[in-house]
Amino acid sequence: MANIKGQMKRNLQNEKRRLANASFNSSLKSAVKAVETLVANNEKEQAINALSLANKKLDKSITKGFHQKNYVARQKSRLSKLVNSL
């Protein structure tokens, strides 16, 4: 544990950010999984709504620096193909 006041503050900030990032990452994975589940259950209208939420979260993950744009483009394409297959 650090004894320097500035480093103790930095550690608190890092922990807050880590928890926020973990929460966002979890919600992103849940959104993607929700689309896949709805497609598996043949619920097209709900899958379309879930797809728009997942796309929004994927786009936000680029701006937050979690994922690269090619990863996000691939995921969005993959989910769109799933929903369009209904």
Structure report:
- With 86 residues, this protein is mainly α.
- It has a single domain, classed as Methane Monooxygenase Hydroxylase, Chain G, domain 1 (Up-down Bundle).
- The protein contains three helices and no strands.
- The longest helix has 36 residues, at 5-40.
Task: Considering the chains and any ligands shown, give keywords for the structure.
86 residues; mainly alpha; Methane Monooxygenase Hydroxylase, Chain G, domain 1; 84% helix; elongated
Layout of SSEs?
Layout: H1 5-40, H2 44-63, H3 69-84
Helix pairs in contact: 1-2, 2-3
Q: Tell me the name of the CATH class.
A: Mainly Alpha
Rg result:
17 Å
Largest sheet: none
Described by the principal axes of the CA atoms, the overall outline is elongated
Q: Helix share of residues? A: over 70%
- What pattern of helices and strands is seen along the backbone? HHH
CATH topology: Methane Monooxygenase Hydroxylase, Chain G, domain 1
Strand content: under 5%
CA distance, first residue to last residue: 55 Å
Number of spatially distinct domains: 1
Q: Mind telling me which CATH architecture this is?
A: Up-down Bundle
Mean pLDDT: 96
What structural category arises from helix and sheet content? Answer: mainly alpha
Q: Number of helix segments?
A: 3
What's the count of strands? Answer: 0
Task: State the gist of this model.
This protein is an all-alpha fold. Helix content is 84%, strand content 0%.
